[in-house]
Amino acid sequence: MADPNARHALYDLACRYAQAVDRRDWAQLTEMFVPDAQLSGPAFMFGDRDAIVAGLRGIERYDTTQHHIHNQLLAFEGNDATAETYCIAQHVYTVDGVKRKLDWGMRYHDRCVFDGSAWRFASRSLLVDWTQDLPLEG
Question: Which InterPro entries has this protein been placed in (predicted)?
C-alpha cells in the first residue's frame, strides 16, 4: 500500500489547484507544476508551466468559478504517481444582463512527481463528461 501521507499530499495538490484557479492565484498555481509540465483539455494544449498559467488565465472571463474536488484514485511507482480525480466545475458568467451558470462534470488524469520536497503535476489532462448551462436565479 502506498504511503498514506503521499495519498493525502496528492489529494491536497488537487484541492490547492482548484483553490488557486478559483482565487486567480497564479503564483500559487505556478508552484504546482514542474517547469516542462503539460496541460490538455477540450480544444487546448499548453506545453510548459508558463504556458499553462497563461492559458488558465482565460478563466478570468467568468464572474466567478468553483471547482469541487471529489473522489481520487492513485497508483504509485517510486517518486511518480498517476491519478484520476473527479471534479464538478461551476462557472458563473453574464450574457445580455442575465447571470448564467455553466457546470462541467469532469475528470483529471494526472501524472505527478515528487521532487524531494513536494508533489507537483508533470501532466494533467482534463476530460469533460457532461455540461449544463442554465440561467442563474437569485
Answer: NTF2-like_dom_sf, SnoaL-like
Pairing label, strands 98-114, 80-95: antiparallel
Q: How far is CA 100 from CA 22, 62, 132, in A?
A: 17, 10, 10
Output phi, psi for 104, to 5 deg.
-120, 130
Q: Listing from the earlier edge strand, what are the strands of the sheet with 80-95?
A: 44-46, 33-41, 119-135, 98-114, 80-95, 64-77
The count of other CB atoms within 10 Å of the CB of residue 1 is: 5
As a whole number of angstroms, the distance between CA 85 and CA 78 comes to 20
Average pLDDT of span 111-128: 97
Helix (H, G, I), strand (E, B) or coil at 43: coil
Render the burial of 71-102: b for 16+ CB within 10 Å, e for the rest.
Answer: ebebebeeeebbbebbbebbbebeeeeeebbb
Q: How many CA atoms lie within 13 A of 91 on its CB side?
A: 18
User: What average pLDDT does range 105-120 have in this prediction?
Assistant: 96
pLDDT at 4: 73
Question: What is the predicted pLDDT for the residue at 1?
Answer: 45
Domains within the chain, CATH numbers bracketed:
4-135 (3.10.450.50)
